[in-house]
Amino acid sequence: MLSPDSVTRQLNDQISLAKSFVVIAKESNNLQFAWELSAQIRNSQILLSNAATRRTPLTIRESETAIRDMALLLVQAQQLHYDSSTMIMKLKAKIQTLEEQVGSASEKSSKYGQIAAEEVPKSLYCLGVRLTTEWFKNRNLLKKLNEKMEAEAKIKDNNLHHFCVFSDNILASSVVVNSTALNSENPEMVVFHLVTDEVNYGAMKAWFALNSFQGVTVEVQKFEDFTWLNASYVPVLKQLQDSETKNYYFSGINDGGKTPIKFRNPKYLSMLNHLRFYIPEVFPALKKVVFLDDDVVVQKDLSGLFSLDLNGNVNGAVETCMETFHRYHKYLNYSHPLIRSHFDPDACGWAFGMNVFDLVQWRKSNVTGIYHYWQEKNLDRTLWKLGTLPPGLLTFYGLTEPLDSSWHVLGLGYTNVDPQLIENGAVLHFNGNSKPWLKIGIEKYKPIWDKYVDYTHPLMQQCNFH
Known about the structure:
It is found in: Golgi apparatus membrane. By secondary structure, the chain is of the alpha/beta class.
């Protein structure tokens, strides 16, 4: 009973029991006692959270007071002599009613939230149309862009700091480039490689020709120009030709609620999402690249990422296993023998969105080939449901170097984040549905993104951005 594991287990057991007594105390209208129990539960949870953050077990000495105080409250709860059988019946009935209400509300919230997250704001659509028109109308833009590029020397110079973004969102991409440039100690050393689709290509080229970013070099490509990107080589493109896959993602037919709506979102089959697994083919001359999602804001100088030692690994990423739902078993189907035999279910997950990729090691390890293998095995969607993180966890298993957590702070698009983490973070990630350019964005985090948007730009004002 004196081992660190038993201390943690004892605290967790006390918390579970105390939560039950909180419910009973409220049902009995003993609100003062319910408050005391809740306060002690929070104290115990803080202890456990601090231990998890520092990655060392709780000691008996630091947990002794919390365990004793909670034990006294639990004894007091037992002495109140609640009518257990009556209370159990009441609680069961209440739980059943609440579960039904929560289930209904959760389903509606998920559907409406997903629809809102997939919305393209009118102002963003307007910007794309006006920029595309400008690109084809204004002959000087191409000349202006070519002057900025200074030939192809910088694009292939491995002495510079290369970043890549794959996106169809002009404004979000602009924020990533602008925030990186403004916080860079040597912006002239920074090269951004933007890859978009044919629809947004002209608009993206026009925007980065019209605007200056502290001397940062910006290259814009469209993935339709990559001749190697075809169904015979790329499993995702092959799957898009399959009639069953088309029905699953594009028919709009409900499968009786078996699959959450977010897993049936066609955006996860977008080539711009899966292009991250082909970075060495996209940039054959480069040796190291920092990959950034288009929903991030950079607030520190990132040059230090290029001197990090990845210890022979391919991917440098921040781990996300401080809580159990960020471990492998939450993303993958461990009832499948192929998953069970190859991957530790308690292995630490990590985040896409700010990744350092050693492309020399990538090519040596044939990482893209590993990705192809797992995509082919998941044709029937039995290994994982959808998205790029699950195949990423499989592809880079044993090839990922953990980075300091301050390099990449997640959660600004779906939850409350510790202000201290935000202040110290180099890259802030608005992962989740509540993107800062949408009406459903979390209000208190929008200013972090807004300060890198030039709302005085004539095109921004014409399209009613505010």
